[in-house]
Design brief:
With 67 residues, this protein is mainly β. 12% of the residues lie in helices and 31% in strands.
Length: 67
Amino acid sequence: MLMNPANRLARLHYLPSHFRQTGAGDHVLCAVSGARIGLDMLRYWSVERQEAYASAEIATRRLLGEE
């Protein structure tokens, strides 16, 4: 039976210039704010921490240790 990945949290492996989907889903959660990020809108992540971020501002604050 095939499962519809809509409205499911995706599992990703973050790489330097792209990510690889390892589990079916259509979104991830921002590691800082908890905001839902559609995979088509995902632009910011940390390879070292393996986390996604909702915006450039949030990613920068996390990198600087402010979050």
